[in-house]
């Protein structure tokens, strides 16, 4: 299946992780988000979705 394209999501940090739980800050860094309003495009996998769901109050997610 050479032509099959993998699903991707676009994640944007919209709230600062300062002052929140250390585990939540680690999720932000693990997703590759470095600063406010920084956007990354990631593969839509269960592990990525788990991190996004944990910090859903800090990020905005869009399907690509």
The CATH homologous superfamily of the domain at 21-63 corresponds to Ribosomal protein L30/L7
How big a fraction of the residues is strand? 25-35%
For the largest beta-sheet, the strand count, sense and barrel status come to: 3 strands, antiparallel
In CATH, the topology of the domain at 21-63 is named Ribosomal Protein L30, Chain: A
In round numbers, the mean pLDDT is 94
Number of strands: 3
- SSE class: alpha+beta
Q: What's the gyration radius in Å?
A: 12 Å
Q: State the helical fraction.
A: 25-40%
Task: Extract low-pLDDT stretches.
Answer: none
Question: What does this molecule look like?
Answer:
- There is one protein chain.
- By secondary structure, this protein is α+β, with helices and mostly antiparallel strands.
- It has a domain at 21-63: Ribosomal protein L30/L7 (Ribosomal Protein L30, Chain: A), CATH 3.30.1390.20.
- Helix content is 28%, strand content 25%.
- It has a 3-stranded antiparallel sheet with strand order 2-1-3, with no helix packed on it.
């Amino acid at each position: 299946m050479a032509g099959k394209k993998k699903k991707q999501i676009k994640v944007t940090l919209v709230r600062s992780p300062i002052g929140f739980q250390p585990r939540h800050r680690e999720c932000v860094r693990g997703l590759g988000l470095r600063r406010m309003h920084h956007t990354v495009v990631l593969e839509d996998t269960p592990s990525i979705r788990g991190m996004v769901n944990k910090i859903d109050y800090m990020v905005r997610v869009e399907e690509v």
